[in-house]
Every structure is written in structure tokens, then in C-alpha cells.
């Protein structure tokens, strides 16, 4: 696949070959679809109907008509070990980078071209030269709600980056193709604001992970990655119409419920929007929604620390320039969401109305 | 310790910086640390980046805040030493004196003067526990 020996590719070719065996051995289990990742067609092939269903739902809004198989571009090939009986072991090689935490091991090979991500239940590899992901999951039946909400997040972040689209820790809602980026640290209320916007008639592009592309004409385009939202179950009462559709976490295993709004509000899920304003969300507990101008530096900080950390070796001067451009050239607001979702949605709508064309 | 005639430039191989509403954010990409300078620190930073010597930067903040020139000079030199120590600035070797255009921050300020303080942010443990560090790779041929 790569033309590079296993030592250099970290075993990518072995994993890709195992995928082909899985697909050949269980042709009836192959699910193929095409996605639009940061505006580029990407082929997604999953062997194992249950795994395809579990991983595909958060990406369902990105599906599109079949693309050109021969064209260069991202590709994702995954299989279910239990459903196919095909296994693969990552060869033991000396990586260039080796990083472990929380049961996850990440290593790189071949001049950092190949990224390997190992967990007890999966092995994923990315060739950043060809933008191909290949990997195996133990079983499609055992994915957590968190995994279903943001499948392949580390791999796709890297794919986006290679497509000149940087993943940021922010939500995004929009109207008529113009979007408000929702920034803030974990727990600030980004998801609540995004869902308030969705219920209040705005388009939903993400609750805490979106890609940002800086285009040659100076526009900054936000790309949706996952049409999912994770919410603490006790907060679901805020949106009775969504609460009925939430997937509740198994008792004692996870602390957040999962929503796939594409299931029931398909027309309000968008793939991309031009970012025209930024909102720093700050949970205050007040009854009324308050909006004020935010210091740009606070918004910048809300976006950057996570960026520097999560992709810290990958954050360069170009990325810095992209984020400073985003923050310096768009109006920045502080929003303290109140108790009424409609008021939050109206506030976001007003910011969209007021933002320069 | 630097002297009043010294000029500095951004350590541009490793450091990126910008000023947001009067606050300078300085990011050392190699060390993965970022710093912040507000108030008088951001004014000094702005002047140094415009090519001013340390003495000229001291003149600027003495005028802006109405403080003693000697106090301004001591503070500017101390800040410059810190910026060099943190590898944010490097000497602009052989730089000739330049005419520094006036800056909007050169006018008098109603803000009380406080000595420049370089704030340092390096606590990234929480985020590091979420996502792994991944080296940059830009080998994919973009259109």
C-alpha cells in the first residue's frame, strides 16, 4: 500500500492487508459510503454491519454520493474483528514518538508520516502522506457512547489538519451559511448553547469539535465533523423535545447521554458555515441570557491552549496566524446563557444579524 | 543585562506573537509555552517589535504613563532580560538605529503605571490527558 517496509510504516501495510482479507472473507458485511471531510470526498469502508452502524451515525450528515475511487484523497478502512474473525497484531518496532495515557498508546513512524493508535479494543493507523486510515475494532457491539459520539477523533483531526483545516475545541451554529463559533473550556456550556440554537431554529454543526479552514479570499470556514452532542442526563430537561431522543448512558459506566440530531432534525444539520462571530460561553447560573463584548485575548486563549496541547507538535506559525486572524477580524462576545433556551437562540441569532457581511 | 542602545527582534524561528486589545500573546512553539504581556509590558513589546532600542522604549513609556525616565529604563531593561531569558527575543545583531513610527499606544494614558510583568502559561496537563501530542506532518499534497 505504501511501498515502505514495515519498519518504516509502523505496520500500516499489514493492517491495510488485514482489512482487505476481512472484506474478502465477509463481502456481505462490507458497508461502503462516501463522506465529505473538510470539503473533500473520502471513502469510508467498514466491514461489520454493527460497527458500521455504531461509527457511522455521528458522521451521517457528511455522507454524499459516491466519489471517484481512483482519485487521491482521504480513505478510511475499518473492520470488526469479532464479526469477521480477522485479527492483526501491530509489529513491535521502535517508534519515533511514543506516548501513553489512559490505556491509549500513540506512536509514530516513518518521519512521523505514520501514526499508530492502540487501545485494548482497537488498533488504528493513519498514513498522513496518503490520508488513509486503516484499523480494527474488537467488536461493533461494545463501543461507548463517547466513542460513538466522536469516532476516530484523533485520526480525523490529523486528516483535517492535512487538508489545511484545523480542529478546534468549539461548537458552531449557523443560519444561512453564516456561523457563530462557540468557545470556552470544558463545562462552560458550549453544548447547551449549541443545542439551544438547534432547538431555536439555527443550524447545528457541532457542539465541541469543528474544523476551521482559512481560505485564500480571507474567509474562515467552519466544517462540521460530528453531528452529535453529549449532555449530562440531568440537563436534558432543558430540551424536552430532545430528551425523548437521547441515548442514556448505561448505569455507572458513563456520565453523559448522547444525541444524534441528524436522526430527527436533519434539515438543521449543516456541513459548513462561514464564521462571522465568536462567542465565549461562560456559565453563570443567571436567569437571563447576557451578552457583552469579550476581550479578544480571552477568546483567543479559549481556543489556543487546547490547540497547542492537543496538537502541540503540530501547532506552527501558520496555525497561529490562522487563529489570530479568526479572533482579530471577527466580533467577539461573552455570553452567559440564561434559563430559557429560546433566549439563548435569539441572542445567537442577533449576533448573526449584527455581524458584518 | 542589556543596555539602553540594544535592539532586539522576535526569536522568529520558535516564537509567534500578536497583540489583542492591548495584550501581547507570545507563544514559544518549540517549548510549547505561551506568555502574556499586558499594560506597560504590551506597550514595550510593541515598541521593540517596531525596531525601537530599549532606551527608546523607555522614553515611550515614560511619556505615556508620566513616570520618571530612570524608572522606565530600569523596568524596560529588566523586561528585556526576561524576554531574552525565555528565548522570546534575540539581539538584533548589527541593527542600525531606525526611525520608529509613532504608535497609538504612545500617547498619554489615564491608566496607572505598573511595572511590566511577563505572565507564563505552561500548565497543560489537563488537556494532555485527553489527546496525545502529535508531531507536525505536512507531506500531503494540497491542491
Question: Can you give a write-up of this model?
Answer:
The complex is a heterodimer of chains A (357) and B (143). Chain A contains eleven helices and 20 strands. Chain A has helices at 6-9, 12-25, 49-56, 81-84, 145-149, 153-162, 190-199, 240-243, 296-310, 317-329, 341-354, and strands spanning 30-37, 40-47, 63-64, 75-80, 97-101, 104-109, 114-119, 122-127, 132-137, 165-168, 171-175, 178-183, 203-206, 210-214, 220-224, 229-231, 257-259, 272-281, 290-293, 332-336. Chain B is of the alpha+beta class and 143 residues long. Chain B is 30% helix and 19% strand. Chain B has four helices and six strands; from the N terminus they run E-E-E-E-H-H-H-E-E-H. Chain B has helices at 40-49, 54-65, 69-85, 125-128; strands at residues 8-10, 15-20, 23-28, 33-37, 89-91, 118-121. A four-stranded antiparallel β-sheet of chain B has the order 2-3-4-6. In chain B, helix 1 packs antiparallel against helix 2 and helix 2 crosses helix 3 (69-85). Chain B starts with 7 loop residues before the first strand and ends in a 15-residue tail after the last helix.
Amino acid at each position: 500500500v505504501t511501498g515502505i517496509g514495515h519498519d518504516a510504516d509502523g505496520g500500516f501495510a499489514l493492517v491495510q492487508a488485514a482489512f482487505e482479507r476481512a472484506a474478502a472473507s465477509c463481502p456481505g458485511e462490507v458497508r461502503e459510503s462516501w463522506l465529505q471531510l473538510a470539503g473533500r470526498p473520502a471513502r469510508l469502508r467498514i466491514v461489520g454491519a454493527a460497527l458500521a452502524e455504531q461509527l457511522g451515525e455521528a458522521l451521517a450528515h457528511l455522507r454524499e454520493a459516491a466519489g471517484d475511487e481512483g482519485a487521491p484523497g482521504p480513505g478510511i478502512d475499518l473492520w470488526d474483528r469479532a464479526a469477521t474473525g480477522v485479527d492483526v497484531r501491530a509489529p513491535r518496532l521502535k517508534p519515533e514518538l511514543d506516548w501513553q495515557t489512559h490505556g491509549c498508546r500513540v506512536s509514530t513512524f516513518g518521519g512521523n508520516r505514520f501514526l499508530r493508535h492502540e487501545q485494548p479494543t482497537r488498533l488504528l493507523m493513519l498514513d498522513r502522506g496518503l490520508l488513509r486510515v486503516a484499523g480494527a475494532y474488537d467488536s461493533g457491539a461494545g463501543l461507548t457512547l463517547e466513542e460513538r459520539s466522536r469516532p476516530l477523533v484523533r485520526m480525523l483531526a490529523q486528516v483535517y489538519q492535512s487538508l489545511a483545516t484545523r480542529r478546534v475545541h468549539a461548537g458552531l451554529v449557523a443560519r444561512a451559511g453564516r456561523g457563530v463559533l462557540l468557545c470556552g473550556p470544558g463545562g462552560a456550556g458550549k453544548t447547551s448553547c449549541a443545542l439551544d440554537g438547534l432547538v431555536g431554529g439555527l443550524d447545528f454543526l457541532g457542539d465541541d469539535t469543528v474544523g476551521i479552514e482559512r481560505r485564500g479570499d480571507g474567509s474562515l470556514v467552519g466544517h462540521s465533523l460530528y453531528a452529535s452532542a453529549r449532555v449530562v442526563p440531568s440537563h436534558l430537561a432543558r430540551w424536552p423535545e430532545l430528551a425523548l431522543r437521547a441515548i442514556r448512558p448505561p448505569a455507572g459506566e458513563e456520565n453523559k447521554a448522547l444525541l444524534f440530531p441528524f436522526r430527527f432534525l436533519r434539515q438543521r444539520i449543516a456541513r459548513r458555515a462561514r464564521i462571522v462571530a465568536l462567542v465565549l460561553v461562560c456559565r453563570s447560573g443567571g436567569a437571563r441570557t447576557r451578552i457583552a463584548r469579550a476581550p479578544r485575548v480571552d477568546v483567543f486563549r479559549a481556543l489556543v491552549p487546547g490547540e497547542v496541547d492537543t496538537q502541540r507538535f503540530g501547532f506552527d506559525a501558520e496555525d497561529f496566524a490562522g487563529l489570530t486572524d479568526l479572533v482579530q477580524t471577527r466580533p467577539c462576545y461573552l455570553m452567559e446563557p440564561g434559563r430559557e433556551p429560546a433566549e439563548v437562540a435569539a441572542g445567537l441569532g442577533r449576533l448573526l444579524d449584527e455581524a458584518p457581511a | 543585562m542589556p543596555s539602553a542602545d540594544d535592539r532586539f527582534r522576535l526569536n522568529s524561528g520558535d516564537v509567534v506573537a500578536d497583540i489583542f486589545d492591548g495584550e501581547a500573546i507570545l507563544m514559544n512553539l518549540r517549548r510549547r509555552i505561551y506568555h502574556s504581556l499586558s499594560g506597560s509590558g504590551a506597550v514595550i513589546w510593541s515598541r521593540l517589535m517596531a525596531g525601537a532600542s530599549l532606551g527608546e522604549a523607555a522614553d515611550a513609556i515614560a511619556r505615556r504613563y508620566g513616570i520618571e525616565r530612570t524608572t522606565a529604563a530600569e523596568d524596560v531593561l529588566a523586561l528585556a532580560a526576561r524576554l531574552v531569558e525565555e528565548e522570546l527575543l534575540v539581539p538584533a545583531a548589527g541593527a542600525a538605529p531606525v526611525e520608529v513610527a509613532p504608535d497609538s499606544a504612545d500617547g498619554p494614558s489615564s491608566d496607572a503605571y505598573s511595572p511590566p510583568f511577563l505572565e507564563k502559561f505552561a500548565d497543560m496537563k489537563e488537556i494532555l490527558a485527553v489527546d496525545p501530542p502529535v508531531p507536525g506532518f505536512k507531506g500531503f499534497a494540497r491542491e
